[in-house]
């Protein structure tokens, strides 16, 4: 049996992850969680303290109180909380380094669903509601940035080291 210093028998197969990737994903998730928590509070408290200008184009109250602010009767703000918490969990450094492709596929599928939801909500804001919510826009930008980070991050993750057969190892 080889020692950990001399051979690869004890080395765990992990991939090289760019150091900026988990930090960027964590920062975007924190931003999304904070804004989603605020919007969730507003959704369940009646929106009486919603801090947003009320003009014709920018009107958070009009957006957050519209029929488009609910999905199957559930306000979309708590769904945002769940999305960002789930993304944080999927992008922990241990899961990013894991060589099993299931995590890569799940992470990319998860953030793609989030981006599809954002595109739907932006469409509703622009073409159905006729107003834009600044708080919602922060969440939308965070989801788009998460999509880009996950996509390019997965491209930049180095493959795991190859397995070394016993007879090919350095002696």
In total, the number of strands is 2
Helix content: 55-70%
Outline the low-pLDDT stretches: 1-11
Q: What CATH architecture would you give?
A: Up-down Bundle
Estimate the strand proportion. Answer: under 5%
Describe, in plain words, how this protein is organized in 3D:
The chain is built from six helices and two strands, in the order ααββαααα. It starts with 19 loop residues before the first helix and ends in a 15-residue tail after the last helix. Helices cover 60% and strands 2% of the residues. Helix 1 (20-45) runs antiparallel to helix 3 and helix 1 packs antiparallel against helix 6 (134-156). It is mainly alpha-helical. The chain has a single domain (20-158), classed as de novo design (two linked rop proteins) (Up-down Bundle), CATH 1.20.1440. A two-stranded antiparallel sheet has the order 1-2. The protein has helices at 20-45, 60-64, 76-90, 93-97, 101-129, 134-156; strands at residues 70-71, 74-75. The radius of gyration is 21 Å and the shape is elongated.
